[in-house]
Amino acid sequence: MPENNRTKRVAILIESHFEDSEFQIPYKALKDAGAEVSVLGSRMNEKYTGKNMKVSVEADATTTDARAADFDAVVIPGGAAPDRMRTNMKTVRFVQDAVRQGKLVAAVCHGPQVLIEGDLLRGKRATGFRAIRKDMQNAGAQYENKAVVSDANLVTSRRPSDLPVFTTTILHRLGLSIKGLELPSEESMTAEWWQLAEGWGGQGKAEIVDCINTAIRGERYALTAFEKYEEKATDAEIKSFFGEVVAAKAGHVQALESRLASLGGELDFQAAGSGAWATLKSWLQGSDDTGLLRRAMGDLQTGVVDAFNLTNQFTDPVTAALFDQIEIELATHEQRAADLYHARLGAGGTAEPAAPTTGAAVSA
After folding, report:
1. Least confident of 11-25, 130-144, 217-231
2. Predicted confidence band at 350 (pLDDT cuts at 50, 70, 90)?
3. Which domains occur in the chain, in start order?
4. What is residue 323's three-state secondary structure?
5. CA distances for 30 relative to 24, 74, 90, 197, 340, angstroms
6. Residue 18 DSSP class
7. What confidence score (pLDDT) does residue 349 get?
């Protein structure tokens, strides 16, 4: 059989606590494209379960008895699994052999930890989950904050939201196609990537819409709270800062509602409960500027964490990018609030006990 027409063979590495979607989406897409997919673990007759408990799979073989020469590509999902894979010298050697033999090696999220262990990133352009960015750089990689980075036979991605682009890149590189499905260019900025991800086992439209609505409710509540902080503040600089946050949050609400509309989702806004507003109103009556700043820091800190958590749940790159921007703006405002707070304490201000926050800017 001619080389170009033969069935492509792909190995997906597995260990417990892998990121469910980072296994499921490439696995389903490759199977749909007619590839022969083998799941390789460290032990046979063991069921490996994803960290979110959504996917369980048994290995077809192990990295001990499998040979890199028998495959066209190797895929390394992320999650906590790569930290275990890198301690298995047979798995590391399997990946090293694949790279040396020019096989396509694709790693997502924490997957590049295996590449680090095999000293396979030196001088390479690559990406990965932001928590291992410094590790990758220390291993000699030129880190790029992009959905997909290709360098020779290495393909890397950052997180679940990159999966439709990551998987499409693998299919293109292997010359694979799926009947009845037009695969966009991995460089496309207009493709409905979430639809590809949904078809391969990722988030459905209803889940994405629900997350966005949750974020809109949180941001609207926080917007109103910061408007009240602005009204209450007496220090001109603090009042101006709260006004900046109000403007930013209004922008967040507008951007989230625009994304919701583009997905054809319905706005499901629920006003804050009367009890929550009563608590906030009561607390505001006895608060000075320093107390307002302390509460604002708590609100902003909660928003940063929630935006980060939500971003890493999406298998939709467009929505994830929107939450990235929200997280960056919230983190900037958090630092500004902290600077103002400490400056007022240094000038003789009195710290108030921490008050309950207004609620998350977004809820994970």
Report:
1. 217-231
2. low
3. 3-199 (3.40.50.880), 205-346 (1.20.1260.10)
4. helix
5. 10, 12, 25, 13, 53
6. B
7. 52
109 catalytic residue (yes or no)? yes
**H-run or E-run covering 199:** helix 193-199
CB atoms < 10 A from the CB of 278, how many? 10
Its pTM stands at 0.90
Q: Is 110 a catalytic residue?
A: yes
Q: What's the 3-state SS for 48-83?
A: EECCCCCCEEECCEECCCCCHHHCCEEEECCECHHH
- The answer, yes or no, to whether residue 273 has pLDDT greater than 80, is no
CB atoms within 10 A of CB 3: 5
Report the distance separating Cα 287 and Cα 223, nearest Å: 19
Instruction: Determine which one of 17, 109, 172, 211 is catalytic.
Output: 109
* Rounded distance between C-alpha atoms, residue 111 and residue 132, angstroms: 10
The conformational region for residue 233 under phi > 0 = left, psi -120 to 50 = alpha, else beta, is beta
Give the active site residue among 110, 211, 252, 333. 110
State both tokens at 159: 């997180």
Among 265, 169, 168, which Cα is nearest to 208's?
265
Look at 50 and 279; give whichever has higher pLDDT.
50
Q: Taken in order 26, 32, 38, 44, is the CA torsion positive or negative?
A: positive
Enter the DSSP assignment of 354: P
Look-up of token digits 């997957």: 111
Taking 90 as the threshold, does the pLDDT of residue 197 lie above it? yes
